[in-house]
Amino acid sequence: MEFFNSALGKNITFVRPAHFLIRGFTGLPNIKYYYVFLFIIYLVSVLGNTMVMTVIVLDHNLRTPKYIAVFNLAFVDLTALIPKLLDTFLFDRRYIVYEACLSYMFFVLLLASVQSWTLVTMAYDRFIAICFPLRYHSIVTKPAIAAMLLFTWIFLSSLVAFTVGIIDRLSFCGSVVVKSFFCDHAPVYRLACNDSSLNNIMAYVAFIIVLCCPLILIAITYVCISIALSRIASTEERLKAMKTCTSHLFLVAIFFLPVVGTNIAAVASYIHPNARIINSSLTHTIPALLNPIVYSLKTEEVLNSIRKLCKRYSLCLY
User: Fold this and answer.
1) Where does the sequence pass through the membrane (predicted)?
2) pLDDT, tens digit, for every residue of 110-133?
3) For residues 76 and 117, is the Cβ–Cβ distance under 8 A?
4) pLDDT at 314
């Protein structure tokens, strides 16, 4: 343990542990097979998201406002969570130093937060495209989307930095065992032996900003889209417009439903830590796996770009 006296000169001592112990799963046999499964998912998601990012960079036709947001989503999906998780449990390196734990927590929470608000940006794109089609190209421009995403990164970086930073004012004089599969925010600050009410408040603030607000905004955009679609007389045109939203709706569902479901269940009843860890780990991996599949196999623009690039570079080889 390291001890730090208050900078105000008061008789206050902060007890900072040298390290935390990540507990992970308890009482589950052959759990290493699950980590191998996560590793395979991670490899496929890295390949898929790298492919999507490469296609967007190489094909000038995809350098549109919509695909700036898609590129940002693919970049965020190259998360640092899984490699560290595998290093922790497959190689039994469960001890993590205090500073590394907070840094790890910051990046995991930041990337998840940016992913949430990137989905809002993509919903905004669909909202303008369907509700104001004639003004779409004047409203949804590359500078506008880039500015929205830049603001998202700056604001969320500040929010997460403050949320993680105030853990430094806590004393950890008891257990250092984190009941999660990584340095998660709540399991860490709840180990403190002094007042953690500010951390608890920030946990609720972050939950509202990162999950509730984006979900409400996306729901509002789709209510407006539904109203706009109901005014289209032609069934064929209505279905065509709806088809442009299916990929985004699918991504919203696979990202938000597990997280919101777990939090509601945690408030309403008891969830076994193992079940929570499985749900959380899949929440961080499955969307990253499915996002490139949705935007490569289900989007005609990307499929055409892949075919065109394959044809171009195959000809270059000859």
Assistant:
1) 33-58, 70-91, 103-124, 145-167, 201-229, 249-271
2) 999 999 999 999 999 999 999 998
3) no
4) 63
Rounded to two decimals, what is the model's pTM? 0.87
254 contacts 287 by C-beta, under 8 angstroms: yes
In which residue ranges of the chain is pLDDT below 50?
Answer: 6-9, 317-318
Query: 203 burial class (0-12, 13-18, 19+ CB within 10 angstroms)?
Result: middle
Q: How far apart are CA 318 and CA 312, in angstroms?
A: 10
Q: Could you give the CA distance from residue 120 to residue 31 in angstroms, rounded to a whole number?
A: 36
Give the separation between CA 135 and CA 128, rounded to whole angstroms.
8
Residue 98 contacts residue 91 (beta carbons within 8 Å): no
pLDDT tens across 154-173, in order? Answer: 999 999 999 999 998 899 88
**pLDDT for 202:** 93
Give the CATH number for residue 243: 1.20.1070.10
Q: Is 310 a member of any domain?
A: no
Domain around 51:
19-302
End-to-end CA distance of the chain: 64
- CA dihedral over 248, 268, 191, 180, signed as positive or negative: negative
Phi (first) and psi of residue 97, to 5 degrees: -65, 155
Task: Indicate the helix (H) or strand (E) that contains 88.
Answer: helix 81-89
- Cβ atoms 120, 255 nearer than 8 A: no
pLDDT computed for residue 8 by the predictor: 47
**Residues 56, 295 contacting (CB under 8 angstroms):** no
Give me the sign of the Cα torsion angle 269, 274, 280, 286.
negative
Q: How many residues does the chain have?
A: 318
C-alpha closest to that of 118 among 137, 142, 146: 146
Sheet containing 19-22: give its strands across: 95-97, 19-22, 177-178
